[in-house]
């Protein structure tokens, strides 16, 4: 019978299922914690830095929406949508849908930045779109649960 040896510096082998399962579990746990932290940061950003100035009618937000031609009504609607998205990012069953909805808002914001503001801050919505897309994909399993809840309630 031939004897096999591990390469120099390799960890001793254990049953394949055990090592892989432990490794995947630890990695998965770290990924879930990182994703949850990212969700909290994005929720805080959308609630405080983005929605709040619109909802309190801050001069800079009002000026921007006047330039777009949407006035205070558009400002309050977008602010309310951003606040609702921020809250929904923290509710497990709504996380994927919230990330998709906020992503759609960011696509709209990008278009407005290009069309109205000559691309001055066009990178910001694109940068925010990256983690939102990651979140929507990572939490996509919640969509089936949400559909089940909606069908049961209807």
UniProtKB/TrEMBL annotation:
Keyword Nucleotide-binding among record annotations: no
Membrane topology value: Multi-pass membrane protein
InterPro entries from the UniProt entry: DoxX
Highest taxon in the source lineage: Bacteria
Cellular compartment(s): Membrane
Pfam families for the chain: DoxX_2
Keywords per UniProt: Membrane, Transmembrane, Transmembrane helix
Membrane spanning stretches: 37-56, 68-90, 97-116, 122-138
Protein's recorded name: DoxX family protein
Organismal lineage: Bacteria, Bacillati, Actinomycetota, Actinomycetes, Kitasatosporales
